[in-house]
Amino acid sequence: MNISDLIEQMPSKRRTLKDLAAYIKTKSGNSPNYSMFLGAGASVTSGISSGAQLVEEWRKEIYELSSSSLYTDVKTARQYLIDKESAWYDPTNEYSSLFQKKFDLPTQRRRFVEKQVDSKLPSIGYSYLVSLFQSAYFDTVFTTNFDDLINEAFYQFSRERPTLCAHDSSIKGVSVNSSRPKIIKVHGDYLFDSIKSTLNETESLEINTKEKLIEFTKKYGIVFIGYAGNDRSIIDVLNYLLRQDEFLGNGIYWCIRKGDEINPDLHKILKRDRVYYIEIDGFDEALAELHYYIIGEGLSLESNFKSTKRESLLANFIEDPYNLNNNKYISQDIDKLKNHTNRLDISNLINELSSENYLNKTGFTEVDFRNLLSLDMLMKNKKFDEAEKEAIKSLSSCSSDDLKNSYLSRLIEIYHQQEKFGLALEQAEITIEMDEFSIKNNLRKLSLLRDSNSKMEFITILLDKFKYSYEIKNQYVIESLNHRFSKGYNNDVPLDNLMRKLESSLSINPSLENMAWDLTRKTLKAIKDTNDNNKDYKEELSKLIEEMNKRNPSHINTLEMRMNSCINDADIDKAISLLKELDEFYKTSSNKKKESLFELMISINRKLTSFRNRAKALECSKELLEKYGDKFEKSESALPYLFRAEYYVAYDRDLKKAKETILKAVDCDDVCNWVQSCLDILLFDNPDLDNGLRLIEKCRPDIKDSKYYLMQFQISVQRNDFEEANGLIDKALASGLNYDDYLINKSFVHLHEDANQKVLNLLSQEISKLAPGAGKEALIINRELANKRATSKINKVDVQNVIGRDKKGPASVAAHILLDEEVPARRLLDEIINNDFSYYYTFLRWPVIPRKYLDKYSVTCVNTDKLSA
Questions:
Q1: Phi, psi angles (nearest 5°) of residue 328
Q2: Phi/psi at 774 (nearest 5 deg)?
Q3: If pLDDT is split at 50, 70 and 90, which confidence band does 315 have?
Q4: Are 166 and 314 a contacting pair, CB within 8 Å?
Q5: Average pLDDT over residues 678-705
Q6: Can you tell me the distance from the alpha carbon of 494 to that of 484, in angstroms, rounded to the nearest whole number?
Q7: Torsions phi, psi of 608, nearest 5?
Q8: Long-range Cβ contacts of 291-296 (<8 Å, 24+ apart)
Q9: Which end of the chain is more exposed for a tag (fewer CB within 10 A), N or C?
Q10: How far is Cα 654 from Cα 635, in angstroms, rounded to an integer?
Q11: What percent of the chain has pLDDT over 70?
Q12: Are 403 and 358 in contact (CB under 8 A)?
């Protein structure tokens, strides 16, 4: 039976969405007349398989397994299961019986559900739902779904946080009179093994859930959407309520999609008094129409969207993979969303053109503006072939050099994104021919050079070409410091010469905004690593800070330099003292500076775990979270989310919460500033590879090629695709990755392959060639692990020197293990992991540390398999 049959049999029971909207609107006072009840059909356009889709899949699989015959059609498979598998198969409730047959244990069922719902984004229907809640037409939603789409929708579209009841014990305390939005999951949450999905489990509701459903229906009616009525437990409660005159006074309105089958239990319910049915096209369409009829307008972008954090959702709405824009109300709002995102793109383009002073020039036309905007949209959507044709076409008809430069810069980026580096360089050369003495054009070419020697040759030429440019002097120092860690470095970068370049830069521009101040610190560190003289380094760093203090002790760069001094001294009391000063500065600073100070306070707190004083570090971090709680809630930056995620791992040992928080960071515009730290947490334990890749691709245009390939390499290692990993780490090296980082990662993947001789061939000669300060400890550990595996021998002196240099650091743990010194290895592991639990997940990845050393820590952390990727 379907909706057409109902219309024929029970025409008097039929209502429309317009009718329902009128009933919802005629509420008494501020209290709603209805609760919402959502089933699996509400999740389909969010990318979650419907019950019907899963039944088709499972029925075919189980039929073929049981009958040893190929699946031909539904009728044959059903009849076979009725005849041969009647002990467990229930044709009236296929979903639950097949689910129970396919997954024996509660943990298996939870993991399946988890995989289904993980990383899914709410469809546009949920934005209408939240808007109706915000307007007080609903305050309670019951759902049989295990996904987190409703809660996520409230997070994305509302400032109000709902009460979420995901298991029976949490439901008892929910008040029917509370106006706060309430989400009640009648069958539990996928994070709990007690989810109710099988035939036996859905036969009855838990007592608190049943009582709460009864309590709410005494006051409210219910609107069912996306729910087929297949749960015996829900149907029994409804039948009980409908027998009592004091319940469901506002009635039940059951929304049924065209073409959906109506099971016998639902058919009986629909015959009862106070129960009506409504024909709908789908969940999203129904909510859009209800919203229009009740609110009288479409979505309010200003109130419902916090722009910078909603990129993924807005893009998904606009892409419209389920063709929801066939509904006229959704179509109107998708058009509004397109215009909203276009306004953001226009704003960014105006900022760019204003900075180049193009907008004030008479040759710049509206057509030029539209062409540039169109080109940016093609690039944003990664339609590089179309973008290339568009850019070349515009260049051929462009008479202004300024506009040519704009098109050429985009063409360079198009080629760069496609890894057509030669073509990108050709276009960069053209920009230099157009304006030979443009520092920007010359530095663009420098950024595209792939070889460290080529970079050094070109920046040396620029140094002579731009004698009085402090930017070029600074860039020379940057390239020189990077060159020290390149393959084939021949000690051809005199560090005292770099200091002279920096002194010259500061004489031209002594402002604290000049990055030469921080480059001086980095060069001093390189000198310290070469001479192994920490005392001189500390003295010179103190002089540098003193000089910056004279200029402005409250400047953010001065404060950052002081932070680096605290880290170098490993002095937590000094760091805490600085935090107190920052707190005082914050009280009397402008809003813009407050943002910088808040970021700096977070940055210092992120470093506190490295000082090995857990009690003080934890106290400071708690104080920051409590004192600046409002800032953490309202910030649109990824850094506060990252800090909280690291806090959850380091102190609470709660990886599930950490990963949930990182996903919020991923949606922030500035996440690329902390992309590696965010990726690290996503890859801890059961790695979330899909979101890891999403993060990497989002940041692709804003990060160095070497970093991009290195992070892709990390994903490949997690997949155990070592062939791809080897190719990616080689590409990272060719793109400018430091040679020590290359050797560490290359030997790491060979150790995972158990290719020990490759490790020995790679490292035996290369370690000695690295510049001082490179990651020699890690390389010695990797080399000696391969040595021990291949020959059962190690270079004990080198390994003992690691312990001497690393001063009880992570590398010392590995060294003790290589030396078969289990007691000091375990003691140091305890000290490091108990201070910062994130090291547990780091050590899990290290081939040198046997699992037996880490097993005891796995039982002390929050169950991380609840968040498998």
A1: -65, -30
A2: -70, 170
A3: low
A4: no
A5: 93
A6: 10
A7: -65, -30
A8: 291/128, 291/131, 291/132, 291/329, 292/329, 293/17, 293/18, 293/21, 293/22, 294/21, 294/24, 294/25, 294/132, 294/135, 294/137, 295/131, 295/132, 295/135
A9: N
A10: 23
A11: 87
A12: yes
Six token digits for residue 555? 């400047």
Question: Bridge partners of 164?
Answer: 183
Classify burial at 855, counting beta carbons within 10 Å of its beta carbon; exposed 0-12, middle 13-18, buried 19 or more: exposed
The answer to whether 446 and 458 have CB atoms below 8 angstroms apart is: yes
CA distance 475 to 524: 17
> Pairing between strand 182-185 and 140-143?
parallel
- 286, 308 in Cβ contact below 8 A? no
DSSP 311: H
Three-state secondary-structure class, residue 14? strand
- List the Cα angle 287/289/291 in 5-degree steps: 65
783: CB partners within 8 A, 6+ apart:
747, 759, 760, 763, 764, 767
Name the amino acid, one letter, at 424.
Answer: A
CB 167 within 8 A of CB 189: yes
In whole angstroms, what is the distance from residue 789 CA to residue 766 CA? 20
Burial code (b: 16+ CB inside 10 Å, e: under 16) for 614-653 equals beebbebbeebbeebeebbeebebbbbbbbbbbbbbbbeb
Give residue-wise pLDDT tens across range 732-766. Answer: 999 989 999 999 999 999 999 999 999 999 998 88
Of the candidates 832, 789, 398, 850, the one whose C-alpha atom is nearest the C-alpha of residue 614 is: 832
CA atoms within 13 A on the CB side of 866: 18
Q: Are 715 and 692 in contact (CB under 8 A)?
A: yes
Cα torsion 275, 39, 134, 319: sign: negative
**Is the Cβ–Cβ distance between 601 and 579 less than 8 Å?**
yes
Least-confidence region, from 74-83, 115-124, 855-864: 855-864
Q: Is the dihedral of CA 351, 353, 356, 359 positive or negative?
A: negative
Indicate the average pLDDT of the chain. 85
Q: What is the pLDDT of residue 40?
A: 86
Cα–Cα dist 413/407, whole Å: 10
The residues near 455 (Cβ < 8 Å, ≥ 6 apart) are 446, 449, 479, 482, 483, 736
Residue 161: DSSP 8-state: P
Count CB-CB contacts under 10 A for residue 240.
Answer: 13
Q: Is the model more confident about 358 or about 848?
A: 848
Strands (E), 91-207: 140-143, 163-165, 182-185
Burial of 432 (0-12, 13-18, 19+ CB in 10 A): middle
pTM recorded for the entire structure: 0.61
Strands 34-38 and 182-185: unpaired
Report the SS3 class of residue 35.
strand
Nearest to 190 by CA among 114, 125, 242: 114
Q: Are 736 and 707 in contact (CB under 8 A)?
A: no
Six token digits for residue 427: 């276009």
Determine how many CB atoms are found less than 10 A away from the CB of residue 435: 14
CB 560 within 8 A of CB 577: no
Q: What single DSSP character describes residue 244?
A: S
HEC letters along 207-223: HHHHHHHHHHHHHCEEE
| Both tokens assigned to 611 | 């000082």
Q: Hey, CA dihedral for 212, 218, 224, 229, is it positive or negative?
A: positive
Tokens of 90: 């229930």
Angle at the Cα of 198 from the Cα atoms of 194 and 200, rounded to 5 degrees: 90
State how far the Cα of 824 lies from the Cα of 847, in Å rounded to an integer. Answer: 19
Tokens representing residue 615 in the block: 């009690």
